[in-house]
Amino acid sequence: MERTNIEYQGVSMEKKIEKVLEEKEEGSGACALHEFLNHFGDKWSMLIVLHLGHAGKLRFNELKKRIQLISQRMLTVTLRSLEMDGLVSRKVYAEIPPRVEYQLTPLGKSLLELMTVFGEWANQHADEIMEARKQFQKRQKAKK
Amino acid sequence: MERTNIEYQGVSMEKKIEKVLEEKEEGSGACALHEFLNHFGDKWSMLIVLHLGHAGKLRFNELKKRIQLISQRMLTVTLRSLEMDGLVSRKVYAEIPPRVEYQLTPLGKSLLELMTVFGEWANQHADEIMEARKQFQKRQKAKK
DNA sequence: CGGTATCCTTGGAGATACTG
DNA sequence: CAGTATCTCCAAGGATACCG
Asked: In this complex, do A119 and B33 lie within 8 Å of one another by their Cβ atoms?
């Protein structure tokens, strides 16, 4: 038995992994996680979710100010895709000048919670990863 | 007070989000989560972690067989990057023909657990997202 | 077997200009 | 203000051929 066998919340890791790896369509290689990453794993989606989660409700240009490096185009594109997936709601006020407000839907908020779990992992293990990289560099140099 | 204010494990969502958004270097816009996605958010990293987690230990070509669509090049490249970050260990046996075995490090296993949490979210909310997309399509057609 | 090295294609994303 | 519409460019990644 060389396999991982951690018990977690009553269900074996084994089963959980199998569930995640399960393919939607035969031969597609597309498991749930893969799908997931295709939609939210891009450069900006998560940042938008975090900022909306933090502020609660933001207008287009407010969001743009907070995510300094994002281009107007990518903000629009990413917001549309998040809206499409039901994570973000978009409310247009028929005023002049126009006003548009974005906020997380309940689904978006549930993703937000998940993201913070991830963020914590990243924070906790950042040092470990940095150290691993250093070691790797060393070993590479040693070979030459 | 229009901000989200969910309590979770004793710490307010507020604080957690702030922590995740915290920038490493001033003005870089690079928070921990962003860093994280840059390294593991690509097309193949997570799949490799899942498969290694499931099998425990795999040789190069075994891994390639399981992830059908991956090219040899990308398998090599991704494995190197995972090795660099200390998530995967690589063991070379000085035999002929050569044998190389990959498996998760403890750090890799901790990431694996996190991934399954994500996978579960994806599975649980897949329907909801599909439905949201349909609704969005409808609304778009209605406009035209 | 387990890779490198090289070439080539594609689509993700920035810059810029225009609009309801 | 909050977007579209183009043009453009670069690098992620596939195909192929070779190597220890």
From this structure: yes
